Amino acid sequence: MNLFEQIKTSQTTDSIFTIPLADRMRPLNLDEFVGQEHLVGKGKILRKIIENDRPYSIIFWGPPGSGKTTLAKIIAEKTKSKFISFSAVTSGIKQIKEIMEIARYNKKEHNIKTILFVDEIHRFNKAQQDAFLPFVEKGIITLIGATTENPSFEVNSALLSRTKTFILNKLSPEDIKTLIKRALADKERGLGEYNIKIDNSTIDFISRFSDGDSRAAYNILELAVSAYSKEKSQKALKIDTRLIENIIQKKALIYDKNGEEHFNLISALHKSLRGSDPDGAVYWTVRMLESGEDPLYIIRRMVRFASEDVGLADPSALQVAISAKQSFEFIGPPEGYLAIIEASIYLALAPKSNSLYKTYKKVKSDIKEFGSLPVPYHIRNAPTGLMKDIGYGKGYKYAHDYKEAIVNQTHLPYKLLDLARKYYSPTERGYEKKLAERLKKIDMLKKKQK
Question: Strand 58-61 to strand 164-167: parallel, antiparallel, or no bridges (unpaired)?
């Protein structure tokens, strides 16, 4: 178990509290819940299910610390049904059968429904999961399972078809910061009675390191307070970045996502890619990843670069950038970082062309100058007799009737034809060299038709 995992699961006897901060600060209702607006926001389906106390069998799928167990506990507080909770790590088929018998008895004798919450349900094997099936089908239990693994692979299909899967997203850095500040201010359940001094940069660092895991953030904060004293103190407890670095054994890189350094680093990456420097490109890519930058932001910039600075000199560049996004979303950090690094090096080594960008600017400039120029009649569609009568489609040349499907006719507004506009001009680099040759051939065939 690495240090990060130790921090995430730490519940040492040296803690200043008997109950871990993460459990004390667990939201008691939806109004306290942070994140997952797509599920529990106003008018969203899961909020309606909880508020109306009409639960049905559910699988919560999401990363650690995203709120799966918390949502189950909120349902437990809200429901009139009997709520039973156990973990797939410590329970087996014997315990499942015992609980099923209790649920059957309550349903038959007292007409009381049972909600069964199974944490880490993916750890049950097929036989154990199958034991739930008849009871779910007959409505004896309402099953709520929580898993960090893809249910499509880890929950058998029969059980999966009888449940609704809700996907929880990793908490955002802003969500984590909200939770940290709430814990620092809460005098009943949190650390509000302690005179804690902590600046925003340290909170940002804890948030970035926690990587969307609320429990990890709470544990780091609790360890920081524990480093001072086991007793309440009137003396100010200063929690700074240096102390957090000491606790998690990781250096805080200078980085402000909304400040100058953010733009400096992305500029350095962009210019390294443009300058065909793979070493510079991979350095700035990893530097941003290690600093806590959103990996998808980096990929978005790479996608832009693939069109703006590589373009048709290497059409595969855009595919590589998009594939990096898909790979990262599929695998996640840290293994998914390699796909981003691969894209970074590929883009740096790709032949460069800004022809697409220049083309866009030229067309945009003419649209701005000349406004909505009319479409030439010969390339307008004529679905009705009236349109044909007034000249729509008259004189149109069908390209496939001509040699190599090349036809000499204008497809631009006449105003731009008179100005002899030529928007796309390929370079002689990479694949664009072939495109330039293709354009010359097209021009030659058109001239022969005159």
Answer: parallel
Question: 371: which residues sit within 8 A by CB, 6+ positions away?
Answer: none
DSSP 313: G
Label residues 420-432 b or e (16+ Cβ within 10 Å = b): eeeeeebbebbbb
Q: What are phi and psi of 321, to 5 degrees?
A: -65, -45
Q: How far apart are CA 114 and CA 385, in angstroms?
A: 69
- Structure-token match 């804890």, residue found: 206
Which of 359, 362, 355 has its CA nearest to residue 431?
355
Question: Taking all residues of the chain, what is their mean pLDDT, rounded to a whole number?
Answer: 83
Q: How far is CA 16 from each of CA 13, 31, 127, 194, 361, rounded to the nearest angstrom?
A: 8, 28, 43, 11, 62
Residues in a beta bridge with 167? 61
164-167 vs 196-198, strand pairing mode: unpaired
Query: What is the radius of gyration, based on Cα positions, of the chain?
Result: 31
Instruction: Report the C-alpha gap between 134 and 139 in whole angstroms.
Output: 9
Distances (CA, A) of 259 to 148, 181, 247, 262: 34, 21, 26, 6
Structure tokens at 129: 């999961």
| Residue 247: closest CA among 228, 270, 232 | 228
Q: Which residues pair with 116 in a beta bridge?
A: 84, 143
Spatial neighbors of 402 by CB under 8 A, at least 6 apart, are 449
Rounded to whole angstroms, the Cα distance separating 183 from 28 reads: 14
In the chain, the N- to C-terminal Cα span, in Å, equals 76
Q: pLDDT tens-digit profile of 52-74?
A: 877 788 889 988 888 888 888 88
The dihedral sign for the CA sequence 21, 22, 28, 29 = positive
CA distances from 117 to 24, 58, 144, 205 (A): 20, 9, 5, 34
Instruction: Check whether 380 has a pLDDT greater than 50.
Output: yes
Q: Give the DSSP per-residue string, 233-292.
A: -SS-EEE-HHHHHHHHT-------TTSHHHHHHHHHHHHHHHTT-HHHHHHHHHHHHHHT
Q: Which two tokens stand for residue 271?
A: 């210019």
128-157, pLDDT tens digit by residue? 787 778 778 777 788 888 888 888 878 888
pTM over 0.70: no
